[in-house]
Amino acid sequence: MTVIFKDLTIEAFNKASKFVKKNRIFVRFTAFIMVAVIGLVLSIVTCGITIGFNVEYAGKNIAVVSNTNVFEKAKKVVLSNINSEDKESVIEEPEFSLTVTTTDNICCEQNLADAIIDNTKEISFSSALTVNGKVLAYGDREELDKIVDAALCKYYVKGAKNTSTFTDDVEIVEGCCLKDDIKSAQDIQAIVSALEVKTVSTVTTETAIKYTTKTLYTSKKDRSYEKVQTKGEKGLETETAVVETVNGKQIAKTVLSKEVLKKPVEKVVLKGTAVPVATATSKANAKSAGFIRPMNKGDVKLITAYWGDGRGHRGMDLAGDTGSPIFAAKAGKVIFSGWDGNYGYAVVIDHGNGYKTRYAHNSALCVKKGATVSQGQQIAKLGNTGRSTGPHLHFEILKNDKQINPAPYIGY
After folding, report:
1. Rg (Cα) of the chain, in Å, rounded?
2. Cβ atoms within 10 A of the Cβ of 101, count?
3. Distances (CA, A) of 236 to 136, 221, 241, 260, 267
4. Mean of pLDDT values over 256-282
5. Spatial distance between the Cα atoms of 262 and 363, rounded to a whole number of angstroms
6. How far apart are CA 67 and CA 51, in angstroms?
7. How far is CA 95 from CA 56, 62, 70, 101, in A?
8. Which is more confident, 146 or 289?
9. Higher per-residue confidence, 7 vs 114
10. What is the mean pLDDT of residues 148-152?
11. What is the chain's mean pLDDT, rounded?
12. Which residues are CB-neighbours of 202 under 8 A, at least 6 positions away?
């Protein structure tokens, strides 16, 4: 059997050799075609050549896609980033043509979406200002950042450590929009200004500490005496606190620390308590002057102020009931009767020899200017007019137009 197969093989080979010798040109051509086909197949496989579709949009070939559905997907990507109601009308219909290309040249839907935006005159790449996920404005990214940063810094406290955030969720995101939807810087400024800004500031402030006043009294000085022994000085303290504000209005404050830099100095004042006592000479002069008390003894409820009571008081205050009669302390001529500012309704009598008397705060006047009155004549009624805190007679004696202590002249 082996011998027979061997003989057949030799016979087949010999016949093939004779065919090749007789048909050398045909065999060579056939081999060339086969090699070319094999090479073409290998080139297609190795180079990634494939069938695709040219996308012609707005008069330009903008991409090559694997199938026409890619354009629809890219269109949806574009429209999903635009909020305008007229967004679909701005995208034109494309034209497709079959082409041979490489797989590397096939465009994906995202890149095709970018190409659609680049070639649609009504659409522009832009940045969007969003508040709580809602787009409020489109604009230039640099301009948006500038306006937002200015709004956040608006309520910073000078010299403090500050941080600010919007009370809403505010973001700037990249996207695209219709060119007509892009806002001016002024419009964006108005939108951002309406947002609330929360600012947290760590502030250190210096505050003055008020000084206290202590009054010391001495019986060795009369009531008109008052002297500052120690001058008061304010102290100084620092306070560090975290202050929270919304649009500049404080909503919370937490004090972290306080430190006294300088303690205040207490003011010390020395005042006299002694009631002035007439000297023997003044008593003698008073007696010879011949004055009487300007009110009935029973009408005087209280002597509320003496001469020199610490206020620079230059007379005596005799308190009583409104309407009580007031008499001329000595005979003389009325040189004033009427309203006299802080004195209220007042009467002034000239007694001669340089002496005058004044009767102030009256409720009514009983004499007129120019009248001559006798000692003990009623000239007014006790009152509470002018600068007065209660019904009383303010009584003064003047010697050569200088006020003197009236107490010894009227027996007090």
Report:
1. 56
2. 17
3. 50, 36, 16, 6, 16
4. 81
5. 54
6. 9
7. 5, 11, 13, 17
8. 146
9. 114
10. 95
11. 86
12. 160, 161, 162, 240, 241, 242, 243, 256
